[in-house]
Description:
Blueprint: H1 2-24, H2 29-54, H3 59-87, H4 92-111
Amino acid sequence: xxMLAVCSHKVITAFxxxxxxxxxxxxxxxxxxxxxxFTVAGPIGTVIGFIVASGDGTEVLSAIFMSITSGTxxxxxxxxxxxxxxxxxxxxxxxxxxxxxxxxxxxxLALVREPDGG
Length: 118
């Protein structure tokens, strides 16, 4: 279940980053290096997260990392992506419906529990 959340998040953020570069007209070596760094950082961060989560007595550490990660994602989503899209006049109702469906999908995903491993 964790991999599903990571992959769905990665697709959305990669699309957003690429779209931002495209809209700004930044297709040069710097933007390519940022995209490569972004692509490599995801798997490295996932591996570090799994290592931290697999240790004994790491509930507090895991909660701290989850809080930082969730807060960062929400901050960027709300201040960058959502604010920019809702500032444009066209298709506001369609954007709201899409936003609401996305929030509802992730809320449902959060309610799904992994079966106990044994």
